[in-house]
Task: structure prediction
Amino acid sequence: MSEPPTQVSIAAGPLVGPVLRRVVGMFAARADLPLDRLDDAVLVADLVAARAPSHVMDSTVDVALSSSARSLKLKVGPLRAGGGRALVVDAAVPGVGNVIEQLADGLDIQTEDGHEFLHVWLAYSGTL
Amino acid sequence: MASASSPRDTDIRLTLPARPQNVAVVRHVLGALADALNLDRVVVDDMRLAVTEACTNVVRHAYLDGEGTIDVVVRPRGDVLEVVVTDEGRGLGPSPDTAGPGLGLALIKALTQSLEIQRSEQSGSRLVMGFSRRTPSMDMT
Result:
């Protein structure tokens, strides 16, 4: 049975990475993602933690997490105008390319109540 | 100086559906916090047990007839680590499936340096738990 999202709000600072990677890893495991996709989810969490503080509205990094059978969804924001795209672009690694774009099964930027949110989906192959 | 309620760069807030599996999420976050802040193992164990007990109380007793949330705020403040667990349910009270008040609050009180409890049947309950980040020195004499 699916449940409402879990909301994590971490003050932009040294705890964003350690806390976010732990929570995302747990939700990926709960979604029964295979180990390679769980690693991918944690890598995406690390990138969001590293890049999002530059693009958030206030002084916190907010992520809503929801998991279902073999899929995990992250909703990052509220972000500043243009922050969703900027966050994805910032995740590019020289020689590797854009890591979030390569790892995510889906990316979307949506506006709610005048604020931007970046939606990231990860799933086991063929689930979405 | 920032007020007690203004966010600092180490504050964490979790809002989760009040379901048993989510108590583990809170425990994991406390583990991550403990690693990042290099907290003493004894302090971490006490904090995890007390916060688990507080969250379990919410899951078991706060929302008897529907869905609800647990709100957990963690605020490191100097030598004190403050954890606030809030629900919007019926507030703390005796368990409907046990004869007495249970050991939960007594256990939390024993494990915390400070404990403040606010409760009402209209607005739920709020536990403010303070933990010393220093391990009590063992008196071996």
In short: The helical segments of chain B are 20-37, 41-62, 104-111. Residues 41-62 of chain B form the longest helix (22 residues).
